[in-house]
Amino acid sequence: MSDLHQMTKTTPKDFIAATLGGLFAPGLTIFMIVMLFLGFQKNMGQPDPTPIAEKVVLERIQPFGQSLAVDPNVPKIELTGEQVYNEICAGCHASGALGSPKFKEKADWSKRIAQSYPTLLDHAIKGFNKMPARGGNPDLSDLEVARGVVYMTNAAGANFEAVLKKEVEPTTDELARGKTVYVDNCAYCHDTGVTGAQKLTDAKAWTPLIKEGKEYLYNAAINGSFGGPAKGGNLKLSDADTRLAVDYMVAQAKTAIAAADKASKQAAAK
Ligand code: HEC
Ligand code: HEC
Description:
There is one protein chain. With 270 residues, the protein is mainly alpha-helical. It has 3 domains: 1-64, no CATH class; 78-155, Cytochrome Bc1 Complex, Chain D, domain 2, CATH 1.10.760.10; 172-269, Cytochrome c-like domain (Cytochrome Bc1 Complex, Chain D, domain 2), CATH 1.10.760. Helix content is 63%, strand content 0%. α4 (81-93) packs across α7, α6 packs across α7 (142-155) and α10 (203-211) packs across α12. The chain starts with a helix and ends with a helix. The structure holds heme C (HEC) (2 copies).
């Protein structure tokens, strides 16, 4: 029993040894880190040690990596019709999968082309039977979808121009969702006009903005504009929800503009 007790008893000698050891261990760690760092420095200035194979792989996976880590401060680069087709639409239309009209197959496209461009565009944006909305990629802008439609239809004999003649009006459900997103993320500034944000009731401020078109407004809301933070500062907000908030804002602003018009006409009639 007394033996046991002696084994755990700390003598002054043990104490000093433990203290020195305690000081030495971190010292050793720091020494090793310094050596590692010096080793790194020695490697600098030497040829890039990344093996070619690794570089090739990095280059190959780059487009994917980039789309995962979208920098909200960099304006989205709109894809051309050919890019939209190759990246999204070809998935089905190259082979005619799911009964889709096949690329360059005039017989598949002629009746569809006869439906007119606005109908085709509308179907491509909203979806049509087994054709998914925006080809299944919600991040495609209306203009990009339009370019994809034109690229495919013109390749099958049409002569369309990729314009957004008519903006697609949001549905009641979309407006309701947009309102929720707006209240949670945008009202703080756009209800009050704080920091120079255009109030939804400010007809004068919104008239020129609406003329710029929804694409412009979507882009400004998603990527930020002068003084307007990207996605209202909530970078977790999806692009789709941000667009719906803009839809809601535009609908409210149009109501304000209509009311202002009416008021000014009444004033003029007096
Ligand atoms: C997952 C498969 C799939 C993808 C991806 C896809 N489509 Fe389609 N698309 C279809 C199918 C299936 C149809 C035929 C639908 C029908 O007529 O019932 C179709 C039809 C169409 C039509 C004709 C609509 C009409 O009214 O006749 C257009 C235009 C179109 N797609 C455009 C596009 C564009 C643009 C893209 C790429 C952004 C795309 N599609 C991507 C499956 C797809
Ligand atoms: C912290 C304040 C703030 C919040 C939150 C905010 N905005 Fe803004 N927003 C601004 C300011 C300031 C401007 C005016 C920029 C300017 O002068 O053009 C603006 C402008 C805009 C514009 C017009 C673009 C332009 O060129 O002026 C749109 C569209 C917009 N905001 C959408 C949104 C949406 C959608 C949300 C919510 C998801 C949001 N904003 C949240 C401050 C804000």
